[in-house]
Please model this.
Amino acid sequence: MCGIIAVTGSGAKVEILTTGLKRLEYRGYDSAGIITVDAAHGFTRYRVANGKTSLHELEQELEAASSNEILAGIGHTRWATHGGPTLFNAHPHLDCTEKIAIVHNGIVENFRELKEQLGHNGHLFSSETDTEVIAHLIEEQRPFCSSLLEAVQKASRLMRGAMSFVVMSLDDPTTLVGFKRMAPMMVASKGDTWFIASDIPAILDRADRFFQVEDENFVVVDPLGAKAFDENGSERDLVELHANWTLDAAERSGYDDFMSKEIFEQAASLRDTVVGRLDASQNLVLDEHLADTDLLARINKVFIVACGTSYHAGMVAKYAIEHWTKMPVELDISSEFRYRDPVVDERTLVVAVSQSGETLDTLAALHEAKNLGAQTLAVCNVVGSSMARLADSVLYTRAGPEVSVASTKTHTAQIGALMVLALHLARIKGQLYPQEVIDLYLELCELPNKIEEVLQVWDSVAALASRLSDKQRFYFIGRHVGYPVALEGALKLKEISYLPAEGYPAGELKHGPIAMLDEQAVVIVVATRTRLYEKIMSNVEEVRARKPFLVILGNQQDEGCITGSEEFIAVPRVHPLFAPIIDVIPLQMFAYHMAKSLGYDPDRPRNLAKTVTVE
Ligand code: M6R
Model:
């Protein structure tokens, strides 16, 4: 949540901030603002709080000033937590002297007590945000410190919660000070122009070197370079990141929106993720960290933690890992995992699945797993993200930047990556013959071609969505690996069309939810050929008798299973455990077309942000 960009150095311009913020739109758009400093005027602040149009309006307001050179500047796009999405709550915030400016992502959990104390000390607040408290805390510390860095360090010790922020001060106008604690932050540069940003896309075409910032570290960035310091003030190395993302991948490139572009990128993203992932000995080729095969051979349990769409990918993986390895797999929503007493030890492999690698709930679950002594693996998409740095091993989904808030291509890539992990575990556990592993892996590598085929249903799914655009209730049902597909279909529809949608295991309908079915309901059945095909077709009969509008998503040869005005979406038949990768795609398209036919912008769903870095 919340996007941050900051720039200093000879190339610093207003336009870098506004363009960077546009590229961070997926982080939130309740309001947007920048503050710049130049020799003639000191600070100049612009803020807009018009919801989905905030960034566009900010860009328009600053068009005339866009090429203005500045000494430095910071910008922010907000997903509101503390304080409504109003202008006076929009970042950047200032201290009482208006000499310290700050943008912030995350939450200061003890902000009420800090604010009360600061109020007693005479500080006046102009917003309801927790962010403004940080500016005043730094203001209080500053007279007793030799530098802005020292004041920021002292202030940070007083605050609890996950956060990252960037501060600028008129006392030293070309210096930016950043702090990172379990929220994304990176540093980048080109020549003597330096940046701090929450995400790579903000500065992809501006910088040619990217550096990761460690948790509990501070960065001081000025035209001469960047330095990192730990909480004790010792200087730390800034480790360079090598992200092969291109600007093209972070732009719409002729598509109406990012969601449709990313749906159509799925063949390529799956191919990039799975091809080359098993070596000649069927060992998993991990990224960055070396997998210790001996350690992995000793594990007797897998625990998967994730949120939202990533959780649904983890759910598919549970079926595959249990089937191929015969090891128990537990699956937990990250925000639940850390607050119960999960039974995890050094023989457990905890797999954190996350597109961003920054989702706070999953990051905290990963910390918890490490504290409990588990072996840990992160499956994430963002190179150098917090989870990638924390986990013992990393398996990247090579899907490129995903900008749409509603995840699509990273979901299918996650399932692909987790399938390779399952095959690798099956091999080292001796549960599959080497040739079986090879055959299955080769079949997985063929799946991108099947995706190309399934992408052809785009127009027919659009026609279906327009036929159903007046329907009010949607039920997605599936069995076995079709169940997580049903959950994901329902989640996508809720996220971008705001329609009540539920995902159920089809066999569970008769235990209650079937009471909801009537002629106004739409039931979408994931009925591709798993070994439960006949059972789900019996569930279809139970549904049909209640006369909802019925849509069956099935394999091409089963088209004859519908009757009357029912609809069939045909997808190619693949290995049953790989089927979710194929089957989810028409459901992504359905959510997309429903949103469009209802007049919603799929890239800007209300109330949502791409990366949830608050609890
Ligand atoms: O970055 P992550 O994969 O950890 O994000 C987890 C969820 O917040 C995310 O999948 C969310 O559900 C998406 N909006 C789904 O489209």
Remarks:
- Residues 307-310, 354-356, 359, 362, 405-407, 495, 608, 611-612 surround 5-amino-5-deoxy-1-O-phosphono-D-mannitol (CB under 6 Å).
- Residues 262-445 form a domain with the Rossmann fold fold (CATH 3.40.50.10490).
- The first helix runs from residue 14 to 23.
